[in-house]
Design brief:
11% strand, three-stranded mixed beta sheet, mainly alpha, single chain
Length: 186
C-alpha cells in the first residue's frame, strides 16, 4: 500500500498566492507608471516635474480617443470651426473700427500696371494673377479678390483676374434659336 505523503492544500497556501498576485499587480502598476513618466521625460526633457508629464500622457490618450471616435472627431471639428468663426468675427469688428486699416482699391477696368501701383500704394500685395477670355483689351483688370471697398489687414494679398484680350466663345443656345433649314434645290 502506498501512502500519500503530500499534504492536502491548506487555506494558508491559497492566501499566500493571493497576496503574491496582489503584490505582482501593484508592482506592475508602479513599474509601468515609472517607465511611462521616464519615457515622457525622455520625449520632453525640458519639462520639469511629473505633473507636466502626466498631463502630456493624458493629452496623448485624449487625442488617441478622439482619433478613434467619429463622434468626438465631429465635435472637435465643430468646436474648431466655431472658434475660427468667432475669431473671424472678432477680426472683422476690429478691422471695421480701425481707421488705419487699408481698403481694397477699385482697380477694375484699369490696366495691370496701374492696378498693381494702386494696390501696392494702399499697403497691400499682389497675390495670384489669372487670365480670362473677355472682350476687354488684354491686361485689363476684370475682378479682384477680396472685392474693392473691403477693409483688410496691411499686407493682404489681392488676387487679380485680367482679360487675355480674346472674345469668349459664343455660348448662344442653338436649340432655342435654331438656324433656318437649308433650302432644297429641285
Amino acid at each position: 500500500m502506498t501512502r500519500n505523503t503530500s499534504s492536502p492544500p491548506s487555506a494558508t497556501s491559497g492566501k499566500t498566492w493571493l497576496i503574491r498576485g496582489a503584490v505582482a499587480i501593484v508592482a506592475g502598476l508602479i513599474i509601468g507608471a515609472i517607465s511611462g513618466v521616464a519615457s515622457v521625460q525622455r520625449i520632453e526633457p525640458g519639462r520639469p516635474g511629473q505633473a507636466d508629464s502626466l498631463e502630456l500622457m493624458l493629452d496623448s490618450i485624449r487625442q488617441q480617443n478622439t482619433a478613434q471616435n467619429p463622434r468626438e472627431q465631429r465635435r472637435a471639428a465643430d468646436s474648431a470651426d466655431a472658434d475660427q468663426r468667432a475669431q473671424r468675427i472678432a477680426d472683422s469688428v476690429a478691422l471695421a473700427n480701425d481707421p488705419d486699416a487699408p481698403v481694397i482699391p477699385n482697380v477694375v477696368s484699369l490696366e495691370e500696371g496701374a492696378a498693381r501701383t494702386a494696390i501696392e500704394s494702399a499697403g497691400l500685395t499682389i497675390g495670384t494673377v489669372q487670365f480670362r477670355a473677355a472682350s476687354a483689351a488684354a491686361g485689363v483688370v476684370l475682378a479682384t479678390t477680396p472685392a474693392a471697398g473691403r477693409k483688410v489687414r496691411a499686407g493682404t494679398a489681392v488676387n487679380l483676374v485680367l482679360s487675355d484680350g480674346r472674345t469668349p466663345p459664343d455660348t448662344t443656345d442653338t436649340l432655342s434659336h435654331p438656324s433656318p433649314a437649308p433650302s432644297r434645290l429641285p
